[in-house]
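Propose amino acids for all 278 sites.
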């Protein structure tokens, strides 16, 4: 694994040196966090718009450092990538999300499935499919209980194992979901090559729905593409009742966003679910 901050400090101006040191501190902190349970998952509901019922939950990683405080995923996910910790992080997320799903069910909550985010690097690992199956089995879960979200960048990086791993995960019955759909370079050509079952309309389209006719046209077109390929299309980042209504009129089957709930810690999510289904 690559190490960050290994560059010799004499090549740095003192300011750069300070940055490199801060980075190294953060890298070590992340390594520690993975061992010491400083990482947590929050869960955001995905709503089946036809029935109003829960369709699934997305697990999102959270890190609160005892000293540095809350460090957002946009900061620590890239750090984990660069420092060779992303494999460990992905495995931890998978295990924790599956453990939590099983725990909710044991407590009598009906949660249909959990989605986890995996970075492109995780798909370099040919052991991933087996690891996923083991994790599911250990929690007495079925492959249909898990969805793995990936971004198109999974195919921008040309690692030889990626396609094999994706195909094998799919073959085992775990659904693959294309995250942030519509923002990448060549979304459409990837759709033909990737065994995905779900698309997530990027939230930038949803944000512009109310005021931008082009965004409206595109969200409709993306739904059309998804439908014709028999994919579930999930609208992300739904914040207002108007956005929700527009998406529903367009025929979107599933939506997710602050309108329904922010990502919540497990106990708060269970409470939310309790009141939402009453
Ligand atoms: P993402 O997978 O696209 O996740 C959705 C992000 O949008 C989350 O940010 C979520 O909190 C936020 N969000 C949800 N609803 C709304 C809404 O209505 N409005 C707005 N403005 N935002 C909303 P978060 O949790 O900060 O995560 C950011 C990104 O970090 C994620 O984007 C994902 O790419 C990455 N990430 C988070 N957890 C993990 C993880 O466990 N593994 C990996 N590899 N990446 C992760
Ligand atoms: Ca996601
Ligand atoms: Ca997304
Ligand atoms: Ca994103």
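Proposal:
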């Amino acid at each position: 694994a690559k190490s960050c901050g290994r560059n010799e400090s004499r090549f740095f101006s003192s300011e750069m040196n300070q940055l490199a040191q801060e980075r190294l501190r953060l890298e070590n902190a992340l390594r520690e966090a993975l061992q010491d349970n400083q990482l947590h998952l929050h869960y955001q509901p995905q709503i089946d718009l036809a029935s109003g019922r829960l369709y699934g939950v997305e697990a999102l990683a959270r890190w609160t450092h005892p000293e540095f405080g809350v460090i957002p995923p946009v900061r620590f996910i890239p750090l984990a990538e660069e420092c060779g910790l992303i494999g460990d992080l992905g495995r931890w997320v998978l295990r924790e999300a599956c453990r939590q799903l099983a725990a909710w069910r044991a407590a009598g909550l009906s949660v249909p499935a959990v989605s986890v985010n995996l970075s492109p690097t995780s798909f370099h690992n040919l052991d991933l499919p087996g690891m996923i199956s083991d994790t599911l089995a250990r929690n007495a879960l079925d492959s249909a209980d898990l969805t793995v979200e990936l971004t198109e960048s999974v195919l921008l990086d040309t690692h030889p194992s990626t396609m094999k791993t994706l195909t094998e995960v799919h073959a085992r019955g775990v659904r693959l979901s294309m995250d942030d759909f519509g923002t990448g370079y060549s979304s459409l050509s990837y759709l033909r090559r990737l065994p995905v079952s779900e698309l997530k309309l990027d939230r930038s389209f949803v944000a512009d729905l109310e005021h931008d006719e082009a965004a409206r046209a595109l969200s409709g077109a993306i739904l059309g593409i998804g439908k014709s390929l028999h994919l579930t299309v999930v609208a992300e980042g739904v914040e207002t009742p108007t956005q929700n209504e527009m998406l529903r009129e367009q025929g979107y089957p599933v939506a997710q966003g602050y309108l329904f709930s922010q990502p919540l810690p497990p106990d708060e999510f269970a409470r939310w679910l309790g009141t939402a289904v009453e």
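Residues 7 and 53 are 52 Å apart (CA to CA). The pocket of calcium ion (ligand 3) is lined by residues 179-180, 200, 236 (CB under 6 Å).
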